[in-house]
């Protein structure tokens, strides 16, 4: 499919089940002048194809499709509109917003049922014939085990735009992101995988352009095979490939955030630039007899991945990024939309079957955002192995516990053990849960402890956009302050949240910038802010917080108990008869059933060992204390001969003394971690 180089030219292949005629349009190298139109006369089933001799790399082209313009029946063919190849590997030019992009006449009393005859070629980006070959040398995927994975969610430009260690000419680019300064930062932070916000070619929404804004996040994909050109310095695929190779050399995996639930064409009022003009009734899920679009993603349209050729396109796209660009995994935006069959969400649906049987795709990391706004859209825990899932229950549970909401201690216990109530089924692992406190969508960590009310006015939507309930707390003053007590409380809250993240079972994900205290000024939906709001403020980095996060990552690496594949269920271990989990109150007693529901239960302690089912008994036990209340007298368990203090979030700048016997209380609003010293554990009576 798409454009394929042959020994003597280029073969073009495009899918359309309902077109009556398709033309190949060849343009000058700058895309400004259409040189010729060639009718595509060869057809195998619904695949139209033509071989053109003499063409080579760099050829600029597009399609025009003839067929019925009958929106009530789902057909919107209009040969006046130049169409981008769905398999385009590179683009020439950017989309220029114009009424000529619309298949209908804007302002017509017939609305989208009208027909526009203006030629749109001047405003549409064209496809470019490319050669994806690259000298990979001895490049090998790091293949970091799930239990050792630490994900760092970041944006190519936001990460590098203000980074003093990145060459100015490379800031905001793939090459800048993989520069020595950035890689050194990630390695010291203990990151094993970068998860990049969308880098498949996308467009800026018309309403944003009219406001002088841009779609900074990129969740508006136009070309699923082409890397976004705004992150390139020379407009070539090798720049992206070089980035991946550099990350691999550093032992860091590259995961792409991909958007296959919808396209940039929007609803019936959107432009005709690709899929809509080639075969609207096949590419999209339609409603109301075909005129309107299903909108379970809330973005105007939904790709119809239940159609075999649309599913093939998605699979081909994923394979292309793995095979041609060597990426190590994908995070699927609004993934429930991909699993929704005619009868509803199906974990054994066609998309999941296709991806799990694929030799190339089944071996990379697969992460689902397990929700959309459609019927039955919330599917946390319902995805099949080997999918990871973003766990918003973890995010909200931790925020509410440390904010001091009553009755959240029982919920915290579930989150610490990998949310087994959601994920422990069908042979899934405790690493199924991707744990996070913050992500690109919402407050940064700094803003989470600085604002109770979002401030999204810069987005131009009168602060109506973004999440309304953030479980945030300003710790006494709204927004920036110089009050030392407020600043100290905020710093302590951030350390507690981060410590809980790194001490929990599952895969931790850190939002880029959180480790240095980056603020977005209270904007919890900065999708349109391609400016200092989103760009990480490296010159003002919080060095103390950065050092603390580095120590947390190192602590997690040093203690296998904190990153187990098996779920822990408080079952006695065959090796010593001691349960793999023992919950305790600060005084050392095991909480009674009714105490779990006590609003005054604010200090949760837990003793962890390797899992009873197959765990290695040679590892030390750990004892963790999570106290969101006042200072509490602390009794260390007698299941070990002695305990060593490894972490105290109230003393971030000092290495723990190691003398656990000197610690007789759990400080207010703190996290403590102890490790058992050598010796056989004593039996307990739960």
Describe the structure.
- It is a single chain.
- With 686 residues, the protein is α/β, with parallel strands linked by helices.
- It has three domains: 2-128, Immunoglobulin-like, CATH 2.60.40.10; 146-261 and 303-441, Glycosidases (TIM Barrel), CATH 3.20.20; 569-676, Golgi alpha-mannosidase II (Immunoglobulin-like, Sandwich).
- The strands form nine sheets. It has an eight-stranded parallel beta barrel with strand order 12-13-16-19-22-23-24-25.
- Strand 17 (286-287) and strand 18 form a beta hairpin.
- Helix 9 packs across helix 10 and helix 13 packs parallel to helix 14.
- It is elongated, with a radius of gyration of 27 Å.
The main sheet comes to:
8 strands, parallel, barrel
Could you tell me the radius of gyration in angstroms? 27 Å
Q: CATH superfamily of the largest domain, please?
A: Glycosidases
- Estimated structural class: alpha/beta
Strand content range: 15-25%
| Structural domains: how many | 3
Name the features.
686 residues, alpha/beta, TIM Barrel, Immunoglobulin-like, 3 domains, 8-stranded parallel β-barrel, 5-stranded antiparallel β-sheet, 14 helices
Q: Outline of this structure?
A:
The chain has three domains: 2-128, Immunoglobulins (Immunoglobulin-like, Sandwich), CATH 2.60.40.10; 146-261 and 303-441, Glycosidases (TIM Barrel, Alpha-Beta Barrel), CATH 3.20.20.80; 569-676, Golgi alpha-mannosidase II (Immunoglobulin-like, Sandwich), CATH 2.60.40. The chain contains 14 helices and 32 strands.
């Amino acid at each position: 499919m798409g454009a394929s180089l042959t020994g003597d030219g280029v073969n073009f292949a495009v899918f359309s089940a309902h077109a009556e005629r398709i033309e190949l349009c060849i343009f000058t190298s700058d895309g400004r002048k259409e040189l010729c139109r060639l009718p595509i006369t060869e057809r195998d089933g619904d695949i139209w194809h033509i071989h053109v001799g003499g063409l080579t790399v760099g050829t600029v082209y597009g399609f025009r499709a003839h067929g019925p313009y009958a929106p009530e029946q789902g057909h919107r063919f209009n040969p006046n509109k130049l169409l981008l190849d769905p398999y385009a590997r590179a683009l020439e030019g950017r989309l220029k917003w114009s009424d000529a992009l619309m298949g209908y006449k804007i302002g017509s009393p017939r609305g989208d049922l009208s027909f526009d005859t203006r030629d749109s070629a001047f405003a549409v980006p064209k496809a470019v014939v490319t050669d994806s070959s690259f000298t990979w040398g001895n490049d090998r995927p790091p293949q970091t085990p799930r239990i050792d994975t630490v994900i760092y969610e970041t944006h190519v430009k936001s990460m590098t735009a203000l980074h003093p260690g990145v060459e100015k000419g490379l800031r905001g680019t793939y090459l800048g992101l993989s520069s020595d300064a950035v890689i050194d930062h990630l390695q010291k932070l203990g990151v094993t995988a970068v998860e990049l916000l969308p880098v498949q070619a996308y467009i800026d929404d018309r309403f944003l352009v009219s406001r002088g804004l841009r779609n900074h996040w990129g969740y508006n994909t136009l070309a699923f095979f082409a890397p976004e050109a705004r992150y390139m310095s020379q407009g070539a695929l090798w720049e992206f490939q070089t980035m991946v190779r550099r990350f691999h050399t550093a032992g860091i995996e590259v995961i792409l955030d991909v958007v296959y639930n919808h396209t940039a064409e929007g609803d019936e009022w959107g432009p005709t630039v690709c899929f809509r003009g080639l075969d609207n009734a096949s590419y999209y899920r339609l409603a109301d007899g075909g005129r309107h679009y299903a909108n379970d993603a809330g973005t105007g349209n939904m790709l119809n991945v239940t159609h075999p050729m649309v599913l093939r396109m998605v699979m081909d796209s994923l394979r292309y990024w793995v095979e041609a660009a060597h990426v190590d995994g994908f995070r699927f935006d609004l993934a429930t939309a991909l699993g929704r069959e005619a009868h509803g969400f199906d974990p054994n649906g066609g998309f999941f079957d296709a991806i799990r049987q694929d030799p190339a795709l089944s071996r990379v990391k697969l992460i689902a955002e397990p929700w959309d706004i459609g019927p039955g859209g919330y599917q946390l825990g319902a995805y099949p192995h080997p999918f990871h899932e973003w766990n918003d229950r973890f995010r909200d549970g931790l925020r509410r516990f440390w904010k001091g909401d009553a009755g959240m201690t029982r919920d915290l216990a579930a989150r610490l053990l990998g949310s087994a109530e959601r994920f422990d089924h069908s042979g899934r692992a405790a690493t199924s849960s991707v744990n996070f406190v913050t992500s690109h969508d919402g407050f940064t960590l700094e803003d989470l402890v600085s604002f109770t009310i979002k401030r999204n006015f810069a987005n131009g939507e009168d602060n109506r956009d973004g999440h309304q309930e953030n479980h945030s707390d300003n710790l006494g003053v709204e927004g920036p302050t110089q009050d030392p007590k407020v600043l100290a409380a905020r710093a302590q809250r951030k350390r507690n949240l981060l410590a809980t993240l790194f001490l929990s079972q599952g895969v931790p994900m850190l939002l880029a910038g959180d480790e240095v205290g980056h603020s977005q000024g209270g904007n919890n939906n900065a999708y349109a802010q391609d400016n200092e709001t989103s760009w990480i403020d490296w010159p003002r980095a919080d060095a103390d917080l950065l050092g603390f996060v580095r120590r947390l990552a190192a602590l997690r690496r040093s203690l296998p108990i904190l990153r187990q594949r098996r779920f822990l269920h408080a079952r006695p271990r065959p090796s010593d008869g001691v349960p793999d989990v023992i919950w305790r109150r600060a005084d050392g007693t095991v909480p009674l059933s009714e105490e779990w529901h006590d609003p005054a239960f604010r200090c949760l302690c837990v003793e962890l060992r390797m899992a009873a089912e197959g765990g290695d008994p040679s590892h030390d036990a750990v004892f963790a204390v999570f106290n969101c209340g006042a200072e509490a007298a602390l009794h260390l368990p007698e299941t070990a001969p002695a305990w060593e203090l490894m972490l105290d979030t109230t003393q971030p700048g000092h290495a723990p003394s190691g003398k656990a016997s000197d610690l007789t209380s759990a400080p207010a609003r703190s996290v403590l971690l102890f490790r058992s010293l050598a010796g056989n554990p004593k039996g307990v009576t739960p």
